[in-house]
Design a protein that fits this description.
This protein is α/β, with parallel strands linked by helices. Helix content is 39%, strand content 19%.
Length: 339
């Protein structure tokens, strides 16, 4: 059994990972400020600590108390971050403060009195507008938005701390996470951002009557249907990869992997999938492009599959959307409206 601090563990991805860790017999402890998370969606039976990632003394107290009780933490899984690329182009300063500077506080606490293993939730946005597809881990790193830059700065810090202090880390780069976790009790956790900005739950909101239409930001990209193409990975597959990366750090001190399903789907294709799955028409309206949005982002997962033995279970878009649709109906109720 491993004792693990999961920052941002009350969120969509972090909560799914924490629940999986607990189901495997590990002891995850969630550290979250609940600014973008809901307590009722945190995994049941998992200890919650409320706090700010920037509060280094608070984190050091957590590590020290565990060590003094002869129950030290074995590793940290770090999910806490702001994640909206569009917002980062309007307010880059809060992304560098929350994603980069606050992570440095966590890393300093780990070096002072905590574990020396970290699994970092990075992003394939570190690549920016790729020169070739699918994107491999040795592709140039040139973010086109402040969100991607804030994550790349953390990766660069980790490289130096690994070299100088021996901090072991795995950096996992992925794009659009989607779907809902299907556990023994059925689907109990899915996307629940407030406000919601991710495409699949927004499209499903239209099917539920919570929104009148879905907005398409740009239909003049150099893609077959003019809309952006993205790689969608199911949250359960992503959670499994985090556990495999954690295990991989026992043998290697530095791991970097892309995680995706290996093929991309356009915005229009996602909308069509939602129409098939829900049986609703889902009207769409075109809006101008958002700054910092590359035309195509699709990652190669060949390295993770080869070295970690990772095998995504959800590779069909309709299946990913189906699990999200079950969650949305469970959360809001079929035919729900904002009024």
């Amino acid at each position: 059994m491993l004792k693990l601090l999961v920052t941002g563990g009350a969120g969509y991805i972090g909560g799914t990972v924490a629940a999986l860790l607990a189901s495997k017999g590990h002891k995850p402890i969630i550290f979250d400020n609940f600014s973008h998370a809901r307590r009722d969606l945190a995994p049941s039976g998992v200890e919650l600590i409320e706090g700010e990632l920037a509060d280094r003394p608070a984190i050091e107290r957590i590590f020290t108390a565990a060590r003094d009780q002869n129950q030290p933490f074995d590793a940290v899984l770090h999910f806490a971050a702001l994640i909206e690329a569009g917002e980062s182009m309007a307010r880059p300063e809060i992304y560098f403060r929350n994603n980069t500077a606050s992570t440095l506080s966590l890393l300093e606490a780990m070096l002072a009195c905590g574990p020396r293993r970290l699994v970092f939730s990075s992003t394939a946005a570190v690549y920016g507008d790729p020169q070739s597809l699918p994107i491999e881990e040795d592709a140039p790193l040139a973010p086109t938005n402040a969100y991607g830059q804030s994550k790349l700065l953390v990766e660069q810090m980790l490289t130096w701390l690994n070299r100088i202090h021996g901090l072991r880390f795995a950096s996992l780069r992925y794009f659009n996470v989607a779907g809902a976790d299907e556990g023994p009790q059925g689907i109990t956790r899915g996307e629940a951002h407030e406000p919601e900005t991710h495409l699949i739950p927004l499209v499903l909101d239209v099917a539920l009557g919570r929104r009148p239409f879905i907005q398409i930001f740009g239909d003049d990209y150099s893609t077959p249907d003019g809309t952006c193409i993205r790689d969608y990975i199911h949250v359960s597959d992503l959670a499994e990869a985090h556990l495999l990366a954690l295990e991989g750090l026992a043998a290697k001190d530095r791991l970097i992997f892309n995680l995706g399903n290996g093929c991309g789907f356009s915005v229009r294709e996602v909308i069509e999938s939602a129409r098939r799955v829900t049986g609703h028409p889902i009207p769409a309206e075109i809006r101008p492009r958002r700054p910092g949005d590359p035309a195509v982002l699709v990652a190669s997962s060949a390295k993770a599959i080869g070295e970690l033995g990772w095998q995504p279970g959800y590779t069909d878009l309709d299946e990913i959307v189906r699990t999200a649709w079950v969650w949305q109906q469970k959360r809001y109720g079929a035919g729900a409206t904002d009024g």
